[in-house]
Amino acid sequence: MKIMTKSKSKILILLTLVVSFLFFNIFITNKQPLEFNEKDQVQINQSGFWDLTGSIFIDDSDPNYNWSKTASENDWCSGSGSWADPYVIENVTIDGQGSGNCLSIENSDAYFIIRNCSLNNSGSYSGIELKYVDNGKIINNTCSDNNIHGINLRYSNNNNLSGNNACNNSYGIYLSDSDNNMLSGNTASNNDFAGIDLAWYCHNNMLSGNLMNFCGISLSGYLAEVASHIIDNTNLVNNKSVYYYVNEIGLGSKNFTNAGQIILINCNNSIISGFNLSNCTTGIYLGYSNNNTISRNTAKHNNKSGIHLEYSDGNTFSGNTVNNNSYGILFYSYDDDNTISGNNISNNYNCGIALVFSNKNTISGNNASNNFIELLCSDENTILGNVISNNSKLRLDSSSNNNKIFLNHFVNNEIGAEDNGINNTWDNGTIGNYWDDYDGVDANDDGIGDTPYIISGTAGSQDNFPIWSDGDEEIPEDLDGLPIISFGNYYLIFTFITITILSLIILEKQKKK
Questions:
Q1: 259 plus 347 within the same structural domain
Q2: What is the mean pLDDT of residues 484-490?
């Protein structure tokens, strides 16, 4: 056997290193710009995996915590921050142990990739937080079981988030004051409030192919903001499409096939009818949209609202079943001249119907059970002919004035009404409301109590014409079970000829024999 001499061995090793060095430089020189592709989604650095006991903090404006120092001192971070050679953090696992962000990046426009990391249990913060950060790629990470956000972008633009799992947080992926970001192929399920939340001052973000179960998409902002995004119907809620329409007129059922969530921005004269929009964040959201009809839909178990309205006028909501949401029907800002009629609204945790800064609306003929109807800073609304029962309350705050409330049926409530406003009237000058705890009498048997019913609250309001029943009526069998107001010698039964027309049926009583 021929044995290689030591000097020849050294020469061979040297030649091998030279060839390797030249090949490496050719490879680097021909690297292409960073783009999303399948390789990004699955590539794993085989050099190692790291299970860190502390959080990662990078602030590119601070020499003690910048990218360069982080890459030079830690074997889990590599790269130089250029387009061709981005900083890379991958295969890192961090348990936040209930405090602080797992991974924070601030004040950076360097190119970087966070890939194949597990960032969980951050306590009251986020798995990943970007603050004043551009040019990042967040790929294939698991950011779950964080108390607030899975992934949180603040004042951060031109970032790509793809293939991440952001489940079981308060918010899966949350953006505020952040523009031109792309969110694609992420899974954001079982989050307490929203799978993806595009909060205030966000513009031109693109959402595609994201999957959300038991939560959905939330939007906030002025028209220029909420109308600027691109959200296609490949985004799914409970395996059904998210429909986001902007500047449309006359949409109908064919535009919402197999809908899981419906969002209309500046859309008018449209009809949304007969859909089940449940187990989401907000089933139906209307922003800056007028004269639409929302009827016969089911909206249950939504984390925020069954139906949510902002800056929208002249809409009709009728015949919907809106139960077990955080808010049933929420008018949040400057929603005027809308009608809420004939809906079944029950067991909503915070409020069944809430009007906030909303005026001249009509709430009529609804069945509100085990939830509040609440007016906050809302004036000149009419609340007529509703059945408010089973631990429900109609509450007006101190800035809700000149509202009219009459012909409602308050039954089986600890406190049926509370008025803290100014000049709200609880009758129309002839007839008021039925109160099952009214303890007055009706000496002339005209169906109106002889003494006013006192409304709780600071306003000192009263129903001057409370509807009174002496309890000696025999209710016909075909009316048994219907919401009936006893009024003098007649029954007043609120029902519907159609889903939109309130009908007042008056039948003469039959006295018990």
A1: yes
A2: 52
**Residue at 37 is within a domain:** no
Residues 206 and 245 in one domain: no
Asked whether residue 242 falls in the same domain as residue 319, the answer is: yes
The residues facing 184 across adjacent strands are 162, 208
Q: Where are the beta strands (DSSP E) in 251-320?
A: 259-265, 271-273, 282-287, 293-295, 298-300, 305-310, 316-318
Q: How far apart are CA 357 and CA 160, in angstroms?
A: 37
Q: Do 489 and 340 share a structural domain? A: yes
β 484-487/490-496 pair status: antiparallel
pTM of the model: 0.86
Cα distance between residue 156 and residue 105, in whole Å: 10
Q: Kindly state whether residues 85 and 119 are assigned to the same domain.
A: yes
Render pLDDT for 96-115 as a digit per residue (tens, 0 to 9): 988 889 999 999 999 999 99
272 and 171 housed in the same domain: no
Each residue's pLDDT tens digit, 258-314: 999 999 999 999 999 999 999 999 999 999 999 999 999 999 999 999 999 999 999
> CA 390, 391, 394: angle at the middle one, nearest 5?
105
Residues β-bridged to residue 237: 212, 240
Residue 34 lies in a domain: no
Q: How many domains does the chain have?
A: 2
In 60-193, where do the E strands start and end? 77-78, 87-90, 92-95, 103-108, 112-115, 118-120, 126-133, 136-139, 149-154, 160-162, 171-176, 182-184
The reported pLDDT for the residue numbered 28 is 32
Separation CA 59–CA 82 (nearest Å): 17
Q: Among 172, 198, 213, where does a domain finish?
A: 213
182 and 243 together in one domain:
no
Measured in whole angstroms, how far is the alpha carbon of residue 374 from the centre of its chain? 19
The rounded distance, in Å, linking the Cα atoms of 416 and 406 is 13
Range of the domain at 350: 238-513
End-to-end CA distance of the chain: 125
How many whole angstroms separate alpha carbon 454 and alpha carbon 464?
9
Q: Which of 191, 192, 233, 225 is nearest to 209 (CA)?
A: 233
Read off the DSSP letter of residue 143: -
* Cβ-Cβ contacts under 8 Å for 498 (sequence gap 6 or more): none
Domain for residue 288, yes or no? yes
